[in-house]
Design brief:
The chain has 5 helices and 3 strands. It is mainly α. It folds into 2 domains: about 60 residues, Arc Repressor Mutant, subunit A; about 40 residues, no CATH class. The protein has a 3-stranded antiparallel β-sheet. Helix 1 crosses helix 3 and helix 2 packs across helix 3. The protein is elongated and about 55 Å long. The N and C termini lie far apart (about 50 Å). This is GntR family transcriptional regulator. Keywords: DNA-binding, Transcription, Transcription regulation. InterPro entries: Tscrpt_reg_HTH_GntR, WH-like_DNA-bd_sf, WH_DNA-bd_sf. Pfam families: GntR.
Length: about 130
């Protein structure tokens, strides 16, 4: 069973993880990697259950686990979304990684790179 919008695939063969766990893990992986960006609106429980051929309770259980982990948030009747806080952390981590790679290419030592980053952060946060 595959979801066309989220590209979720549920393996129903013997020995595979429970469907709710497969769903939870795939959405979590996509949210953490940025494939599902912060603010992305997820399908309704009923809609995703129908699309995947699962019981609504199975999808609801996966959504509850994702919400408990802080990866998604339910906004009442507006729907369920990928949580913004995770997106901000992910974006900051990507920027830090890009900086570290650039500093390394420039020949900076680890201490020099850390000092440059710390000075930039200090300057930005004291300037406001």
């Amino acid at each position: 069973m595959t979801s066309t919008n989220l590209r979720i695939r549920i393996d129903g063969s013997a020995g595979s993880a429970a469907p709710y766990e497969q769903l939870r893990a795939q959405i979590a992986d996509r949210a953490r990697s940025g494939a599902l960006p912060a603010g992305y609106k997820l399908p309704t429980v009923r809609g995703l259950a129908e699309e995947l051929g699962l019981a609504a309770n199975t999808v609801a259980k996966a959504y509850r686990a994702l919400e408990a982990d802080g990866l998604i948030e339910t906004r009442g009747r507006n729907g369920t979304f990928v949580a913004a806080a995770e997106g901000s952390s992910r974006e900051a981590a990507a920027a830090a990684q890009a900086f570290a790679e650039r500093a390394h290419r420039l020949g900076l030592t680890e201490a020099e790179a850390v000092a440059a980053a710390a000075e930039a952060v200090r300057a930005r946060y004291t300037a406001t």
